[in-house]
Predict the structure.
Amino acid sequence: MRSRRVALLLMSALGVAIAAYLTVLHYDTGVPLYCLGSQGHGLINCENVLTSPESVVLGIPVPVWGLLWFIVTGALVLLSRGSERARSFLMAWSIAGGIVVIYLVFVEFDVLHHVCIWCSTLHALILAILGLQVYEAGARG
């Protein structure tokens, strides 16, 4: 149980760091984009994904939404130690994150025809967090 919490906190912290970098990139064009494949027209093209019209939802850049998601996740992990209610909310929050990931991957592949490695890393972290939540729920019975 303790190692699962540590893993969740580490994944949340990594997610915060990456989402913060992508958020800064969105607002400060002087910050360099480090992404393999950003040049050219291949499948991996972070720049096309991060500057597309789909990179802003309800007037807020998607990385900001991700930053908030990972901050809330970390807080819920800390609160869930002694609270069944917080654990339940963390599960619901993780499921919501997984659903959003499915949508974002669809947008990358079907609408933009490009993938951002940074975004894919965040998607993998969200799905790993969801997976740990499902595993814990199954272990509890």
